[in-house]
């Protein structure tokens, strides 16, 4: 594994970076937030149809590119740097990753081509509030869902919150308890008894929802549900670490540029040691974060046995330092950094919610300890 991107990864990075700058700058993200929209449908169609991001980790036999997780990490860093709202994490990472981990070939062939093309938006309805439900994986936090019946005649009852893109998904994969077992169930967005309510949260760039089910018809998917949830936990850590690493780099660039331009006492504030040290700390934290992220991406593609531990390490080494960097970005911008008109608060809110999304730092350390047998 090299910290230096390959030629293909550099090309992908540059393409996504140009796209974000042209089609989804922070000014456009602000307009989207003001309009109350979860994401820009036109941007999503271009991300999927033009750049093919939704199919990066999906094998070619199911309509994807089969490019691997390292490529997805590169794309997610650039989207994270721009705080681009999209269902990519929910659909192309969590839902697609869960389907690939399960053994239901018929459902894979039915759903994965649509997910890869972006025409179908899916989500895996998991939260970080009850990590212990599935051994070593994420469970149904914020309310336990129970299943009755089996096969295509199953029904689900319970509540889940918060669920990524739960209000926008065309189909939902829902973990539920059937006795002592945990299974994954497929629910159509229009199924009777399903209620979806969009949540107002601290981070306006992240679409979350509350899901309620009342004897909702569902299809039980074949395969190891607990194992699929454990795999989802690892993919969530990798993807969130990638987004946060990109956003941390954006905070560093934004603050460094401001330190060069803002003049106090006759010289740029970047000349003062107090500012230099904070920026140096931010740079050091980013370098460490990027190294652990690249290691986790390599494990995802080449060393599955190490992936769970490496993904947890990446999440711990990225999400916490990103929050610190976002806070320092506000502080080092002085009075303007605290205003609504400046972009610094968007990164701070993203870091604040992202630090606990799908399991906070304590959850990740517990998961890492369990993985290492500590």
Q: Tell me, rounded to a whole number, the average pLDDT.
A: 92
CATH topology-level fold name of the largest domain: Butyryl-CoA Dehydrogenase, subunit A, domain 3
Largest sheet composition: 7 strands, mixed
CATH domain class name of the largest domain = Mainly Alpha
Shape: globular
Number of domains: 3
Q: Provide the CATH architecture of the largest domain.
A: Up-down Bundle
Strand content: 5-15%
- What assembly state would you assign to the polypeptide chains in this entry? single chain
Radius of gyration: 20 Å
- The CATH homologous superfamily of the largest domain is called Butyryl-CoA Dehydrogenase, subunit A, domain 3
The helix content, as a percent range, equals 40-55%
The sequence of SSEs as H and E is: HHHHHHEEEEEEEHEEHHHH
Could you give the count of β-strands?
9
- Figure out the total of helices: 11
Distance between the termini: 27 Å
Low-confidence stretches: 130-142
Structural class: alpha+beta
């Amino acid at each position: 594994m090299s910290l230096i991107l390959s030629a293909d990864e550099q090309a992908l990075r540059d393409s996504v970076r140009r796209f974000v700058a042209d089609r989804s700058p922070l000014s456009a993200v602000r307009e989207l937030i003001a309009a109350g929209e979860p994401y820009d449908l036109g941007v999503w169609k271009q991300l999927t149809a033009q750049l093919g991001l939704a199919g990066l980790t999906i094998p070619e036999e199911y309509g994807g590119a089969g490019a691997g997780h390292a490529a997805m990490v590169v794309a997610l860093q650039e989207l994270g740097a721009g705080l681009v709202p999209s269902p990519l994490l929910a659909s192309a990472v969590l839902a697609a990753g869960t389907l690939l981990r399960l053994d239901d070939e018929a459902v894979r062939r039915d759903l994965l081509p649509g997910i890869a093309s972006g025409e179908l938006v899916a989500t895996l309805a998991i939260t970080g509030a009850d990590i212990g439900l599935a051994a070593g994986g994420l469970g149904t936090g914020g309310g336990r869902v129970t299943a009755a019946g089996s096969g295509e005649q199953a029904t689900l009852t319970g509540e889940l919150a918060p669920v990524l893109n739960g209000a926008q998904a065309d189909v939902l994969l829902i973990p539920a308890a059937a006795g002592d077992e945990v299974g994954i169930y497929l629910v159509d967005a229009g199924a009777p008894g399903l209620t979806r309510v969009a949540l107002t949260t601290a981070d306006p760039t992240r679409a979350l929802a509350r899901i309620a089910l009342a004897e909702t018809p569902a299809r039980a998917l074949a395969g190891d549900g607990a194992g699929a949830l454990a795999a989802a936990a690892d993919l969530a850590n990798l993807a969130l670490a990638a987004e946060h690493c990109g956003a941390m780099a954006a905070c560093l660039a934004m603050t460094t540029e401001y330190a060069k331009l803002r003049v106090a006492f006759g010289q740029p504030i970047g000349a003062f040691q107090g500012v230099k040290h904070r920026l140096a700390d931010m740079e050091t934290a980013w370098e460490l974060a990027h190294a652990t992220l690249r290691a986790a991406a390599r494990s995802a593609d080449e060393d599955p046995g190490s992936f769970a531990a490496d993904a947890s390490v990446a999440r711990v080494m990225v999400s916490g330092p990103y929050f610190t960097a976002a806070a320092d970005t506000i502080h080092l911008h002085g009075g303007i950094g605290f205003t609504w008109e400046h972009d610094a608060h968007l990164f701070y809110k993203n870091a604040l919610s992202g630090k606990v999304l799908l399991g906070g730092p304590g959850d990740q350390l517990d998961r890492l300890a369990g993985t290492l047998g500590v």
